[in-house]
Amino acid sequence: MKARVHVMLKDGVLDPQGEAVKHALGTLGFSGVEGVRQGKVIELDLAATDRAAAEAEVRQMCEKLLANTVIEKYTVEIA
Amino acid sequence: MKAAVITFPGSNCDRDLATAFEKAGADVTRVWHKDTALPEGVDVVGVPGGFSFGDYLRCGAIAARSPIAAAMIRHAERGGYVLGICNGFQVLTETGLLPGALMRNAGLKFICRGVDLRVATADSAFTSDWAAGDVVRFPIAHHDGNYTADPETLARLRGEDRVAFTYLDNPNGSMEDIAGILSANRRVLGLMPHPERAVEEAQGGADGMGLFRALLGGMALV
Hints:
The structure holds two protein chains of two kinds. In chain A, 35% of the residues lie in helices and 28% in strands. Chain A contains two helices and three strands, in the order βαβαβ. Chain A has helices spanning 16-27, 51-66, and strands at 2-9, 39-45, 72-78. In chain A, strands 2-1-3 form a three-stranded antiparallel sheet, with helices on one face. The mean pLDDT of chain A is 95. By secondary structure, chain B is of the alpha/beta class. Chain B is globular. The N and C termini of chain B lie close together (10 Å). Chain A binds chain B through residues 13-14, 16-17, 20, 64-66, 68, 70-71, and chain B through 57-58, 61, 65, 93-94, 99-101, 103-108, 146, 148-150, 173.
């Protein structure tokens, strides 16, 4: 079973890297970009076969390591 | 005083930190990230600067989940002293021993230079050599030193007099110019600037020695 975790900065937390990317896009002539937020995608190959159990375990992984919940939020997709 | 200095893969200020503790008169043991216990009778744990685990995932994130970090957390929970500098500060926030997080510098650049800091409180074993308001100069060398916390945390740090150092001229976008903070029991200090790189005049200044001198003199028995 595969899981995909998206980690993003929480709304309201300033993202200096996203701002830099937005600025660079503007420099390239993409004038309509009103905001850029940069995050991470983490793909996991899991031995688990039970979907609900796998999701619960990945959420624990997020809480304990994959995301810093002081500044980041995450979503989990099980595929 | 017995000090233990941790080395993670990618630490690069561990020797400087050990040397600073020794210069202040401490008996220093070096410990490895895979060690599961601290040496018997350790009073203070030093978490050094560097790029532990290549800054993979987030700065300090992997180090904060290493076996020695679990021993360090137990030490802190028993009331032991912990000093985290630069990457060490990032590790301490990742363990939750200190609140908030250190994000990419607002200007996105790695900054390496001396900075002037205000000693924001003298009420800690780390800062008792100074008076609140004193200005000291330590080097900084970081890419992710932009201290961030929610408004409640910032209010609590302020209200409990737990901001240890602030920047006079904020180099990295840190909220409220915060350069270093204390735990609620005032025995865990994390700071981005490097006092251990300012312990001899040959390094361009010896202001950092005040921190190690104070710690050795002012530490209550654990």
